């Protein structure tokens, strides 16, 4: 029987806690959060949960709370990732992160770009976990996470790959004002940052909300626009193109929908930067001021039910990977679409939002691989670096949860982004 700590009991962390509660080989789930009430709230929905108050600013405090745990799942904001990872190394536990840490290159702030941080995680932190005989997996939510598995599945249909386009459109709108069904802080940080793209075998930066493309997907019911957005997938693919993506030369992440439409005006108005400004004799940080006025995503089942009862304006979306390359000497495009429960169906299935369902349970499937000893790789890997057997197992478990996919192979297609 195993003991696991989930560090962060927000919308996604609480979902992972609740799913772990159902795993037969799990003895205890430590639900850790700076806000003890949040940890206690999720434990009330569980049988094996133990709430603990933890200040993730202190490595030793995290390590003490995780004593006896074989795995720490990090669902904290990016700035705490290094501390949680260090705690996992300290107690010789495995580590899972829904994103990827920032500020990982200790003592070299001039070297500490996020891109170089990923490289450093693969190498230096990979070495440290391997020396402990443990495993760390980063980028394990929906995107990155589910998207990385599906990108691998799509690319496996090709003999050689030229371009991968990872695209997400979120069209859930309710009568209650909820611009983001996941962390507003993470969402707005991503909106403000220059995006990453992998182009002509080089990592490049692009402006947020730039380089729009249009798609007319049946699941959206109309033509939609997707734009550049800061995300992990192009970075992972760029690093791992030869071994896992059949020599892919270009990789993009495109995003559209409710969050983009809400945030673009804030970005253009200069309200998402972190530099203090003077306003009527007071110093304010525009980003912090905006964040203060954005509601947190719902995670309590009663609150989710109330939102649904108040009225759903629209509940659709698309989660798509397009992989372009050659098969049997022909130019083809592999068009892979993921289907997952929306707001109303997710609540009916599991008393969750659609975002919690896909991201939280998508993350949990990586946790399930780890707690069932199905990840023999030691060191640090990103979510696109599972072997083919692990990819198929992940997809089979996802199918059991109603997270399914379809593939359409088309000849003579070129990416238009």
Automatic annotation (TrEMBL):
Saccharopine dehydrogenase NADP binding domain residues: 4-137
Enumerate the InterPro entries for this protein: NAD(P)-bd_dom_sf, Sacchrp_dh_NADP-bd
Record SUPFAM superfamilies: NAD(P)-binding Rossmann-fold domains
Database matches in Pfam families: Sacchrp_dh_NADP
In terms of PANTHER family, this protein maps to: CARBOXYNORSPERMIDINE SYNTHASE
Identify this protein by name: Saccharopine dehydrogenase
């Amino acid at each position: 029987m195993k003991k696991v700590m989930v560090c962060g009991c927000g919308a996604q962390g609480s979902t992972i806690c609740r799913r772990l509660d159902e795993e037969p080989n799990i003895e205890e789930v430590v639900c850790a959060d700076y806000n003890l009430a949040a940890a206690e709230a999720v434990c009330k929905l569980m049988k094996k949960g133990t709430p603990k108050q933890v200040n993730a600013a202190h490595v030793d405090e995290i390590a003490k709370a995780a004593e006896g745990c074989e795995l720490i799942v990090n669902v904290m904001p990016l700035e705490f990732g290094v501390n949680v990872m260090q705690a996992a190394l300290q107690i010789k536990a495995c580590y899972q992160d829904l994103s990827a840490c920032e500020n990982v290159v200790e003592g070299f702030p001039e070297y500490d770009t996020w891109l170089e941080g990923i490289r450093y995680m693969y190498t230096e932190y990979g070495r440290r976990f391997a020396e402990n005989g443990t495993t760390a997996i980063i980028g394990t939510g929906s995107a990155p996470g589910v998207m990385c598995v599906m990108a691998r599945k799509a690319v496996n249909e090709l003999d050689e790959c030229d371009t991968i386009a990872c695209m997400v459109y979120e069209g859930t709108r309710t009568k209650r004002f909820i611009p983001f069904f996941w962390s507003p802080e993470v969402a707005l940080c991503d909106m403000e940052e220059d995006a990453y793209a992998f182009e002509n075998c080089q990592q490049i930066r692009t402006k947020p909300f730039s380089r729009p493309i249009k798609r007319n997907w049946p699941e959206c019911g109309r033509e939609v626009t997707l734009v550049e957005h800061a995300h992990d997938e192009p970075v992972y693919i760029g690093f791992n193109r030869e071994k896992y993506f059949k020599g892919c030369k270009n990789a993009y992440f495109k995003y559209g929908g409710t969050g983009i439409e809400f945030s673009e005006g804030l970005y253009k108005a200069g309200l998402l930067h972190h530099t203090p400004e003077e306003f009527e004799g007071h110093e304010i940080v525009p980003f912090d001021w905006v964040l203060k006025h954005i509601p947190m995503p719902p995670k309590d089942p009663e609150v989710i039910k109330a939102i649904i009862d108040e009225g759903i304006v629209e509940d659709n979306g698309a989660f798509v990977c397009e992989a372009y390359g050659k098969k049997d000497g022909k130019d083809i495009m592999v068009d892979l679409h993921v289907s997952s429960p929306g707001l109303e169906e997710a609540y009916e299935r599991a008393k969750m939002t659609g975002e919690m369902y896909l991201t939280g349970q998508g993350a949990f499937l990586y946790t399930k691989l780890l707690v069932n000893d199905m990840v023999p790789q030691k060191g640090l890997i990103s979510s696109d670096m599972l072997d083919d057997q692990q990819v198929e197992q992940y997809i089979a478990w996802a199918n059991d949860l109603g997270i399914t996919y379809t593939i359409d192979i088309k000849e003579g297609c070129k990416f238009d982004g």
